[in-house]
Amino acid sequence: MMTYAGKYDAGINELAASIVDYYKARNHAAVFPVISCGQTVDGLGYGADLLEALAQHGCEGFYFTHRSGEVHKRYSEYAPPVLLEQIATAKRAGKTVVVIAVGGGCNGNATGVVAAMTNSHFIEVPTTPLHFNDATTSAKKAFSLVVDGKILSKNLLGTFYLPRLVFCINETFCTCNSASIHSAVGESTKTMNMIGIAPSTPGQRDYENILGAHEFASDTTAILSQVCGFERLVEFISDAQTRDAKRTALEAGAAVGRRRAELFAAVASGAPAAAVERLRVALEAARAEQRGQVEAVRGRYYSLPVASRAAISDFFTVINAEIVKAKAMFLAYEDPFEKYRALLFEYAHTLGHGVEAWLAGVHERAAKLGLDTEDAVRNHGQCVGMAVVWAGEMSRRLGALTGDGYNCHQAMVYLFNSFGGFSFGPVRALADALGITKAEFVHEVLEVVRLDNKRGYVECADCTKSVDQLVTRRPGQMLRSDDSNAEVRYLVTVDEAWQQSVLERAFDMEFDNVAHLEPSSGTITFAPLATRPRPPADSAAVADALRRRISALYADDECLASAPSEAPTASALESDTSMGDAQPESVKLLDNYKENHLEDGTRASLLSEGARGQKPEHNLVRRACPEGLTGDTLGMKKQRASLVQADIKKMPDFSDTLPANYREGYRAWRKGRAHGAKGEIDRPSSPAHRLPEMLI
């Protein structure tokens, strides 16, 4: 992975030269680049700029554009005959085909499938922060199940295929929209809540069963301190003059598209050379206008105050560094194919995917009616961010996440909701305009949830049940299941009614809140964004208080773990949740929600005390959590090694399918004799898994 912090034009030339030099050094006789990009990136000219730069280095290629959006993430859109014919023709001519995805995560994800199924080399050039720090760090590439413009299930057909290079030019982020920036933050709130402060002693205990968790330990909460940079960036992107400048650039891009189509049609029809040349000159003039208008957008960014640009730069630096480290904790050695522990990165994706799929169809309906839907755009990460709040609410009502733990969990999203990017209100307004009722919304979202690809890992034949992932006690600890197939993936079986409840409340806009810091008490509270917005000057103080509160929760755990204690009694072992990093789910836990819920006076009192932000005493935590949530006791540390080994034995042994020099390390790991990274420098992995030398 490489980031280019210099000027855009120099970055494009550097990327083109690096690609050509890399393949020339490996004696590839000819390289055939295929640029794949969606409508917006095509309109901004980023894909065409790279193709032209490659052509200047003697690499003529093919330019492929497709419709943007999740509803088009399907085989017919990304693998039409014309594209496959170009790839096949190049291969028959002995050329090395390099498929280059320029754009956002959806484009990179689906284009990667095409590269894999055609056995082509693959490069990703992210133009959104979420694509860079999240999508490219995963080997998963997939299409969704889309029928008649409706997403029935996300990412259902795919493969594992690593790019040979990820090259990001930071200046392209200047032309993102607000939804893209919120999307990156929404995904990071998921990661912050599931990993927390991994370098801390309690954090190391939380994930000491993960090979690589210590080496790449991420303090994801550092992202919270960058809220000011996030807000300055969104203010710049949302500014009327910036929006006008980008709109003008996209109009110039549309003119380029028309000139390009005219030229191709003339060439295909055998038009006279003079006519073809006139069209070529017109295309070049349109491209020059497009480049100038996009440069004007970047020029507005450089006109910002130095302090604002520094804050924005710090925001990108920290969010990229911490999220990439967090992904490496699980993907580098432990679970590169995301079948087991790394499935934790699906936290908040069950309902998030469901709402995202439903909303894509809603936007399609609105577009046919000519309705303005810009305010109701909620990209993938935004839907995940909203679902983080909903998952936290399910954990609270279950009794697994209360007090400061619950407040910190929710505040990670509400801190970044000053602009309403994680509010459901605009979506509700669009639904009302289309006559969509709450019942219809819930029904359609749950239809997608019932096809969620995580269900295949768990026995979930009961139509009243669903599969999800939930945080317990504090950020960084996940609820665990008695089912070994579920536990190894941090999955738990939940009642579909719980999901239905939070969706209904979301539709009623109960979660459209923003975090505040109360001056008198120093506590973090949540208030409706519509009636009590947060002044920008207060954001840093809220973030600082939130980080301190999370650190205090970790410090409490460390004190409890080191305090001398008598040998625990059987009853204490059954109910203790003080250090619950390996809590099994139980029938008691499931029944507790249905039987006691919030109608039980004693339980409602306990939960409301936690919801008000009061720090619970240790015994209160024990009583507030169901008996089935048995946690870390003082004697559990000695047992962990054998418990982890037992988990490993439950995993399928697929070592025979691995390259020989990878297989040795994998088998040693299964036997508890892991040594360093799989594919160490002194024992590199196979060429298919090795990073290109140009990246070292």
For the structure shown, list the relevant keywords.
696 residues; alpha/beta; Rossmann fold; 4 domains; 6-stranded parallel sheet; two-stranded antiparallel sheet; 52% helix; 10% strand; globular; disordered C terminus; DHQS/DOIS_N; metal ion binding; metal-binding
Briefly say what this structure is.
The chain folds into four domains: 173 residues, Rossmann fold (3-Layer(aba) Sandwich), CATH 3.40.50.1970; 116 residues; 299 residues, no CATH class; 43 residues, no CATH class.
Radius of gyration: 26 Å
Strand content: 5-15%
**Number of folding domains?**
4
State the end-to-end distance.
10 Å
Shape: globular
Total strand segments: 12
**What is the makeup of the main sheet?**
6 strands, parallel
Coarse structural class: alpha/beta
Percent range of helical residues: 40-55%
Low-confidence stretches: 565-643, 675-696
What is the oligomer described by this structure? single chain
Q: Spatial order of the strands in the main sheet?
A: 1-8-5-4-2-3
Query: Mean pLDDT score, rounded?
Result: 84
Tally the helices.
27
Tell me what you see in this structure:
Helix 7 runs parallel beside helix 13, helix 10 packs across helix 13 (306-331) and helix 14 packs across helix 15. The protein has 4 domains: 2-174, Rossmann fold; 216-331; 338-636, no CATH class; 653-695, no CATH class. The protein has 27 helices and 12 strands. The longest helix has 30 residues, at 240-269. The radius of gyration is 26 Å and the shape is globular. The strands form 4 sheets. A 6-stranded parallel beta sheet has the order 1-8-5-4-2-3, sandwiched between helices. It has a two-stranded antiparallel sheet with strand order 6-7. It has a two-stranded antiparallel sheet with strand order 9-10. It is α/β, with parallel strands linked by helices and 696 residues long.
